[in-house]
Amino acid sequence: MSVIKFIISILFLIFIAAFAVVNRHSVEVFYYDLHLAKQMIEAPMIIVGLIPFVLGFLLAWTFTLASQVKSKAAIRRRNRAIASLEQELARLKPPADILKAPVGVDRS
Questions:
Q1: Which among 21, 37, 39, 15 has a CA at the least distance from the CA of 29?
Q2: Contact 37, 28 (CB under 8 A)
Q3: DSSP letter, residue 102
Q4: 8 in a domain, yes or no?
Q5: pTM of the predicted model, to two decimals?
Q6: CB 49 within 8 A of CB 23
Q7: At a CB cut-off of 8 Å and minimum separation 6, what does 32 contact?
Q8: Which structural domain, as residue segments, surrounds residue 78?
Q9: CA distance 56 to 69
Q10: C-alpha–C-alpha distance, residues 76 and 56, integer Å
Q11: Measured between alpha carbons, how far is 100 from 95 in angstroms, rounded to an integer?
Q12: Are the C-beta atoms of 39 and 32 separated by less than 8 Å?
């Protein structure tokens, strides 16, 4: 499985490198600053294309991390509950020698 991930990563990097070579020209990016004044910057097309990609990656990674933390906490809670139930079962289970004695025989 790790070989497949590695191959996919290499192909993705090749795709990004090809995109960067083809889109080397500068583009004008307009935005509004904090004072609602329209501003303009010039940036290479690759930067303009990669910024949303990186932001999306970071957002997805953050949600995945939060989900993993919640899952690990649930697993810990369930493992504690299992251990508690196993202790209670061991406490309530009669000793083995009582179970082996025939019916009607004095157990003292």
A1: 39
A2: no
A3: P
A4: no
A5: 0.55
A6: yes
A7: 38, 39
A8: 19-93
A9: 20
A10: 30
A11: 9
A12: yes
